[in-house]
Amino acid sequence: MKILLIHFRRVCVTAGLIFAAYYLALCVGSRFILALPWSPSISGHVFCVVRGPVIPRRGMLVAFRPPQTPYAPAGMWWMKYVVGLPGDRIQIKGREVWVGGIWRGHCAARARQDGAALQCTKAGIIPAGYVFVWGTHPRSFDSRYAEVGLINEKDFMGHGIRLF
User: Fold this and answer.
1) Same domain, residue pair 84 and 108
2) Which helix (H) or strand (E) holds 155?
3) Residues 74 and 132 in one domain
4) Number of folded domains that form the chain
5) What pLDDT digit, counting tens, does each position of 55-113 carry?
6) What percent of the chain has pLDDT over 90?
7) Which domain holds residue 18?
8) Judging by beta carbons within 10 Å of its beta carbon (0-12, 13-18, 19+), is residue 79 exposed, middle or buried?
9) pTM higher than 0.85, yes or no?
10) Do residues 67 and 97 both lie within one domain?
């Protein structure tokens, strides 16, 4: 019974924190959005998105409209980390992806949702106006895949801040 009570308290505290963060975001205005991730693509549970122009930096969390894919319904937006900037080299070795000389993970051959074949992104130099985005989860659907590709900076909605 004591364990159940402790679990109930944790759930109540978490729900209270989420409600408080949501209320704060509403009070601050439309420049800030409270975001709860729908997948484990990036680590964290609650984020604040600061809407507005973004000058991307390596390691920055950005919110953007993804390209149309079967795994991104229309109107949805994503959050990922910028790990490749214009001028960085993308290398593909087998199905391993390297960006700017740093290993960014394995490119899966098939999608988990429907088993469809997935293609690795193309090797080359990231052009001006585009970035390589990456999720912290090993199976994150990000710029490692040709279906997502490089993200145009014009598609940014703002930058993200992990709250908890």
Assistant:
1) yes
2) none
3) yes
4) 2
5) 999 999 999 988 888 777 777 889 999 999 999 999 999 999 999 999 999 999 988 88
6) 52
7) 1-30
8) buried
9) no
10) yes
